[in-house]
Amino acid sequence: MDEQVQSSEKLNTSSPSRFISLRWRFLFPLFLVLLVAAMIGAYAIANNLSYGVGVSQQNVLLQSSRTVSERTVDLYTRQHAEAQRIAFTSGIPEALLSGDVATLHAALEGAALAAGLDSVIITDAQGREVAGLQRVSTTEFTDYVISSGTDLSTEPIVQSVLNDQQTQTSGLFNTPEGLILYTAVPIRQDDETIGAVLVGIYLNQVLEDLQGSAVADIALYGGDGRLLSTTLLLQGDVSGLNTIDATLIKQTLNTAGQAIIA
Predict the structure, then answer these.
(1) Residue 185: other Cβ atoms inside 10 A
(2) Three-class DSSP category at 228
(3) 76-110: buried (b, 16+ CB within 10 Å) or exposed (e) per residue?
(4) Which distant-in-sequence residues (6+ apart) come within 8 Å of 211 by Cβ?
(5) How many Cα neighbours within 13 Å face the side chain of 122?
(6) pLDDT digits over 121-159, tens only?
(7) pTM (2 decimals)?
(8) Most buried among 1, 46, 82, 183, using CB within 10 Å?
């Protein structure tokens, strides 16, 4: 942040007498020199202070950006590890192939509780949900709601794993409880993909985890430039925050060292 410190002084001097004592003949020029030096010094100090504040704020933003980037990688790594742990859990492939929904739900709830996940879904090879659960909060309780039978075959994250043979991918689902960030991995048996497991956490929790103790706020945008969620307390006209330029999105995603989580 650059600030300019402008100082202007208009000196109006008038002398009722043309007499100047010998003392002032020596002191007045010295006073002028000191006054100019003091003004220059004050300007230099103010300028350095403003520059220092600007540099300090830039450093804070840069450090916060690095911290968020590192936490993003950690978040993705944790979710990927949890998804793989479920996919490789003994009995999961067999329960999936046999359609044993009760066994799958029991295994998923235990894994979700242990890892602090908000949602876990297992699909078959066609992308249909065989077993799933999602954390739901009401005024009376917070618990997991179980589900099955939802067709997820058209979801890009599911298609990437089942059709494109991706070993790991991530994406967002819009649910009545809010956006959930999922990470998906395939479930294999005898070198054949028989389904997929998706683990997810709510997007507002993602932002809290990414922000941590950082002093900077975070705004999360989708690939189309739309604002998805933010830690900012939005008040008044916030139309300028609702979208950002698509070119900036592409530049950010193409920047080396960036972790793309969705």
Answers:
(1) 24
(2) strand
(3) bebbbebbbbbbebeebbebbeeebbebbbebbbe
(4) 68, 217, 218, 231
(5) 33
(6) 999 999 999 999 999 988 777 899 999 999 999 999 999
(7) 0.69
(8) 183
Q: How confident is the model at residue 235 (pLDDT cuts 50, 70, 90)?
A: low
Q: How far is CA 261 from the centre of its chain?
A: 9
Cβ neighbours for 183, distance < 8 A, ≥ 6 positions apart: 76, 79, 80, 82, 83, 168, 169, 170, 198, 199, 200
Cβ-defined contacts of 152-157 (< 8 Å, 24+): 152/121, 152/123, 152/127, 152/128, 153/126, 153/127, 153/128, 154/127, 155/127, 157/182, 157/184, 157/198
Enclosing H/E stretch for 80: helix 22-87
The size of the chain, in residues, is: 262
What CATH number was assigned to the domain covering residues 23-211? 3.30.450.20
Contacts of 85-91 with CB under 8 Å at 24 or more apart are 85/111, 86/111, 86/120, 86/122, 86/197, 86/199, 87/185, 87/186, 87/187, 87/188, 87/197
3-state secondary structure of 114: helix
